[in-house]
Amino acid sequence: MSGHSKHLPADERRAATVEAVVDLAAEQNPSDITTTAIAQRMGLTQGALFRHFPTKDAILQAVMSWVTERLLARVDKAAEGTTSPVAALEAVFMTHIDFVSEHPGVPRMLFGELQRPGETLPKRMVQTLIQHYGERLHRLLEAGKAQGELDAGLDVDAAAVLFIGTIQGLVMQSLLAGKVCRIRRDAPAVFAIYRRGIESTK
To answer: Any idea what DSSP says for residue 34?
Structure first.
């Protein structure tokens, strides 16, 4: 990306910056990523980087916007191509897993932002992403109950929390093991257990 980044139009330069940050986050603690490191990854000077992003927080905001747009668009598309709410839940689960596998720096950044003290715009953006994701899960879970696929007494709030928590658990296990490929390997069996817990027994 280095030499190529020096002559990109503004929009492409911003996109390349986001890509550089996501790549760096896969290799190191996101909180340790400096604007110097980002500029070096792109083959730019810090001055050139700051012409597009006045602060490091502005870069983080761009990254969070990128994550939100792409992840939600991908899970929406996955859910649309299914025949039932439970099939949609599985498609969303596996699509999310694929997204994390392709961009292992993303969950590290999301966790990092949520742990930052105080209120920051990037942190609020992560919270908004989780809220919008949760709303999608609620709709699918309610539809599953209405169609008799899911247990009539299912606590939808708890089921949504468990869905997200299950993905987070898989992410943490893959990070601890240092093997991103592990998340794809384990995901189908883990979802099968989740599915058995929420399905109607009738």
So the answer is: -
